[in-house]
Every structure is written in C-alpha cells, then in structure tokens.
Write a structure and sequence with these properties.
heterodimer; A: about 575 residues; 25 helices; about 70% helix; B: mainly alpha; 2 strands; about 80% helix; elongated
C-alpha cells in the first residue's frame, strides 16, 4: 500500500511545477525570438495582419488575468449569487465592444486609444487626458499581475515572493521589448492554450468526482454522485444556511448595487485600452467583429466553468473541514496555513473547526485565492494537475501584464513623444523610445509587485470605474454622435474621472474622513465598485450639455466620422 | 442615390444594434438581476432559473449575440457593396 503511494507520488508537485513552468516559459521565449518586431507598426499593432482566430485567442489571454484565473472562482465561492456581477460584467462588456466600438475603431485605423481621442476631438488636450487615463488604468492593473506572478512562484516553487516577481519581470521584458505587439500576440495565443487547459482539467476531474458529470457547466446543476438524489446547489444552500450564511443561490447585495456593479464592469471592460487595442491588429473591419466573437467564446469557456468550480469548492471545503477536529485536518490545510492564506483560531477551545457566519464565533478565515490554487489538493487530484494550475496561473498573469505594458509604452512613445513632444522623430528612434518606455514600465510594475500599495485590490475596481467614466462615453459619442465636439468630450472625461476618483477615495479608501464612511452613506446605495456607472452617466450628461453650448466640430472631423461608419471602400471614395 | 447609401446603411446598422442590445439587456439585467427572484421560482434541472441566467445563461446568449451580429453585418456589407 505504502509502496504504491510512493510510486504514484514519485514526482513531487514541486518537480512537476518546475517541468511544466520550464516548458511553457521556453515556449514563450522561443515565440518571442521568432516574432521580433522590426517597425513601429509591428511593435504597436503586430503589423495589422493578425488573423481573427489568433486575435481572438490573444484577446482572451490578454483579458483573463491573474484575477480571472486565480481569484474569480474563489470570490464567487464566498459571494454565491452576488458573484454573478463579475461573470455578467466581464463577459457582457464584449457585446458592447463588438457592437459599438471594435469595428469603428479598426476602421479608424490608429495605434492607440488616446490616438483616437486626440484625432476625433482634434485636440492635443483631449489626447493628453486620454494618455493620463490610459496610464492610470494600466498601471493600477499591471501591479496586481506582477504580484500574482510572485505569489504563484512563492507558493509552488518555494522561492521568495520577490524573486518570483523578478523572474516574471525578466520574462515579460524579454518578449514585450523584443517583439512588441507582434511578440505579445503570438505568446498570448500560446498562453491561452496553457491557461484554458490548466483551468479545465481540474474542473472536469472535480465535476466527475462530485456529480459524475464530466462537463462542469452541467455538473453544477446536477445531482450529487452520492446517490442521495439531492441537487448540488440545494445541498450547498442547505450547508450555507446551517452555518448562518445567506443561501448560496440568493446572495446578500442589494438589487440596485448588483445592477450598478454589473453595468460598471461591462462598460469598463469595453473601455479598457489594452483590450481595445487588440482590435487594431486585424486586417479588416469584418475581422474585428469576428475576432470579438471568438474572443468572447474562448473567454466564456473559462467564465462559465468558474461558477461551477466555485460551487464544487465551497461544498467540498465545508464538508471536509466544518466541525472537524483540527488535529486531523488534511495536509493541504496545514500547508496553506503556513502561507497565511488559511488562519484558524480555536476560540472556544474545543479542538473543532467552527466555520460560521457569526464573526464572534467563526474560527476559520480562508482567503479567496485558495479556492482555485488549492482546489486540486482538496479534491486529492494527481500532482501533475496541481502543477498545471501553477503554470496556468502564470500564463494568465504574464499575458495580461504584457498587454498592459504595451499600452503603457505606446502611450508614452507614440502619444506623448511622437504626437505631442517631437512629431519629427524618426521611425527608428520612435521604436527605440517604445522599447525604452516598456523597460521603464516593467520596472515600475515590478516595483509595485514587490512593494504592493495597500490599495491594490481596491484599484482593480478603480481601473474599471475609470475606464467606464472616461473612455467609454468619449469613444461612443465620437462614433455615434457626429455633432460631438472637443469641448464636450474633454469636459465629460474630466468630470467623469474626477467624480469617480473622489468617490473611490472617499468611500473605498476613507481619505476624507477619520473613519471609512458607512455603507448607509453611499449615494443611491451604490458601492464604489458600482459607481463607475454613475460616473459614466455623468460623463454623458456633461459631454452633451457642454456640446450644445459650444461650436460644432470642423467639417473634416465630421467627414471622418462618416468614414468610420462605413466598413470599407469608403476610404478611397474621398479621393 | 449614392449620397444616401451610407445613410441607409447606417440606419439599418443602428436598427440591428438596437434589437441586439435589447436582448443583451434582457438576459442580464432583467432575467439575471431584476426578475431574479421571480424566475427563481422555476427550476432548470438543479438550477434556480434566475440564478442560472445570472451565472450561466446570460454569458451563452452574449456569445450567440455577437455571432448573429457578425452574420447580419456581413450580409449588410454585401448588400451595400461595402464588403470589398
């Protein structure tokens, strides 16, 4: 018996992790060398000739970050129904992107989002506001990714978390600086394959274990495999209420807040520069539409699995440890306890683990991130599966970090240097500037990864709020409202962003009061996470009101708008 | 005539957007959020229906919506000769 256990465990999790991470990293580096960028067009938009399928895969990897891969299922696991805000918010945004933005921005045919803002609103002030927004959004986002890389390294390879961040920086630096968008695109294609495989394998294993159904999306709504005839979700509702939590399928946020957060995340998704810029890399308008569809399909494979994983993990966890003696907990419990992601304090000294909703009696605190990372261990899956999760999490974090770094470097070298400071810069020098600014950006991101500001978690929500409050209305109005002028757009963006920042600082970080203001003081009962929708509305209102009071945009600009609306051929028609 | 072509194209495009976005709104904000409690009275296998829309169904519809849009627009482009 012991012999057979030794045999199956011959390769430890750590060895497997080294093998899998080693293979995937060599792959990324190989692709980077193959796909070097030789011109600014290749560096910024991969030469503009990426196929819709490759772009869809790259967009999916670009979009699914460490947060989607590691944290989302865990958050849903603890939030139950309320977790739907992320599921609907982060997928519904693609409908807006595909229908309202991507085709027109592709037709416009520029390199960056501030580029569109600057040209459409015939103003360098508008461009500058765009650059500031792009930098703010991207930096807040990228810090979290580097932290994710460090976490995975330290957890699975037992290296120091800072060493992990530095290794991650070097890899991203290598392919982002060398290959620009071209290198990033093809590594992201590989990273999508790695991350989706790594996410699905354990999910399928666990689904079979718990419900006998190999498809997690169906297993999630099936009866338990224990022949009790009980549906998994009914069981979980029961377990949750027994422990004093809200029913899993009901949630506890107010309807208004769920609505506002979902809307803010959708609109924010559609306004994120690192996602939008991916649609500049395809050949035709038609390809932009199609690749948005492919991207969402590929994203939904993971996003529809995540809530299933969440429900499995939560049921499994409650059943394995609730009311069990601490002395006999499984090995994974002790292992994660040493990392501080699980903490147990025996308040009533009975030696049992009380996991209940009542904060005074609850003895167990479990970090969100564990649900995905420890899930294979909790379900006692083979070592290679556990190691696979590590490689997948790294792929998710690295692909997103690279996309964000490109936005940062393009904003600096293209929008600031080429378009505003030194328009006469040669193509060769602009390329040097682009590479230098991505090196600086990686270093700054790494610094934040090693010294994470306390508000990193809060700033991810801020990034969506900012994108919703600034870019989304400016781009939509720029396409769908010919009369929209620079005065309106600039005023709208500034008012939107400032209001959003103020609300976040006041109600999320408590900067303006001695203590963080209570929920009851929220405007309309909307949380800071959902406030992006209010700030977005405000942007629309301000933009349109100011526009009515100021002169209409020049004829040439109105003609550009008409051209954007026609997918092809119209370009030549103006000659 | 040639002058009206872009306008007519744009009008049809807007009509498609309007219809598709109404569906987008209904499956997520209406079925998954506002009418969640009502729909939860019904069950789809082990799922309460409102919960299913919020955590599964709306996403599937989103994907389908984009592909319908792609098809509609490809046809529209062809009709107006904008597909070249």
């Amino acid at each position: 018996m012991i012999n057979s256990i030794l045999l199956t465990q011959a390769l430890t999790v750590q060895t497997w992790t080294y093998i899998l991470v080693g293979i995937t990293f060599s792959l990324y580096i190989g692709i980077a060398i193959w796909a070097r960028a030789g011109s600014t067009k290749e560096f910024y938009v991969a030469g503009g000739g990426v196929s819709p399928l490759a772009n869809g895969m790259a967009t999916a990897a670009d979009w699914m970050s460490a947060a989607s891969f590691i944290s989302m299922a865990g958050i849903i696991s603890f939030a139950g129904y309320d977790g739907a805000v992320y599921l609907m918010g982060w997928t519904g945004g693609y409908v807006l992107l595909a229908l309202l933005l991507a085709p027109y921005l592709r037709k416009f045919g520029k390199f960056t989002v501030p580029d569109f803002i600057g040209d459409r609103y015939y103003s360098n002030t508008a461009r500058f506001v765009g650059v500031i927004c792009a930098l703010l959004v991207s930096f807040t986002y990228v810090a979290g990714q580097m932290r994710g890389v460090g976490l995975v390294f330290s957890r699975f390879l037992e290296v120091d978390i800072n060493t992990g961040v530095v290794i991650g920086m070097l890899i991203v630096l290598f392919y982002a600086v060398l290959g620009g968008m071209k290198g990033i695109t093809y590594t992201q294609v590989a990273q999508y394959c790695v991350l989706i495989f790594a996410f699905m394998v354990p999910a399928i294993f666990i689904s079979i274990q718990m419900t006998g159904n190999p498809i997690p999306q169906l297993g999630f709504g099936s009866e338990l495999a224990d022949d009790s005839g009980t549906y998994l979700l009914d069981k979980l509702d029961g377990l949750s209420t027994d422990l004093g939590f809200a029913e899993y399928t009901e949630g506890s946020k107010s309807l208004m807040d769920v609505f506002a957060i979902t809307l803010a995340l959708m609109v924010g998704t559609a306004g994120l520069p690192h996602v939008i810029v991916r649609f500049f890399t395809v050949k035709r308008v038609k390809d932009a539409r199609k690749s948005a569809g492919i991207a969402l399909l590929l994203i939904v494979i993971l996003y529809s699995t995540a809530p299933a994983v969440a429900a499995f993990a939560r049921t499994n966890m409650i059943e394995t440890i609730s009311n069990q003696p601490y002395a006999t907990v499984p090995e994974w419990f002790k292992k994660w306890e040493t990392t501080g992601l699980i903490t147990f304090k025996d308040k009533n000294n009975d030696g049992l683990i009380q996991y209940v909703a009542d904060k005074n009696k609850n003895e167990l605190v479990v970090d969100n991130d564990i649900m995905v990372l420890a899930n294979p261990e909790i379900a006692e899956l083979p070592n290679w599966v556990i190691a696979l999760v590590a490689a997948g999490a790294l792929a998710a974090a690295l692909s997103t970090a690279a996309g964000l770094l490109l936005v940062i470097s393009a904003s600096v070298s293209h929008d600031l240097i080429k378009k505003m400071i030194n328009p006469k810069i040669s193509e060769k020098n602009e390329l040097v500037a682009a590479r230098l600014s991505s090196i600086v950006a990686v270093c700054v991101a790494g610094y934040f990864g090693i010294n994470p500001p306390g508000f990193v978690a809060a700033t991810v929500a801020l990034a969506f709020g900012l994108a919703a409050a600034s870019f989304f209305p400016a781009i939509i109005l720029g396409i769908f409202y010919k009369r929209m002028n620079k005065e309106g757009a600039i005023a709208g963006m500034i008012v939107g962003i400032v209001t959003m920042l103020y609300y976040m600082l006041k109600y999320k970080l408590g900067w303006f009061d001695d203590v963080l203001p209570n929920k009851s003081e929220w405007w309309f009962g909307i949380s800071p996470e959902g406030f992006g929708s209010v700030a977005m509305l405000l942007n629309f209102i301000v933009s349109i009101s100011i526009m009515k009071l100021t002169p209409e945009p020049p004829k040439e600009v109105q003609e550009i708008v008409e051209l954007i609306r026609i997918p092809s051929g119209a370009g030549e028609a103006t000659h | 005539m040639a002058k009206n072509k872009p306008k007519a194209y744009w009008k049809e495009n807007i009509r498609y957007l309007f219809i598709l976005l109404i569906i987008w709104f209904i499956v997520s904000f209406v079925a998954g959020i506002m009418l969640k409690d009502v729909l939860n009275e019904f069950k789809l296998f082990g799922f309460k229906l409102g919960f299913w829309f919020a955590q599964q169904g709306s996403m599937y519809v989103f994907v389908v919506l984009i592909f319908i849009y792609v098809r509609l627009m490809n046809k529209l482009d062809k009709k107006y000769g904008y597909d070249k």
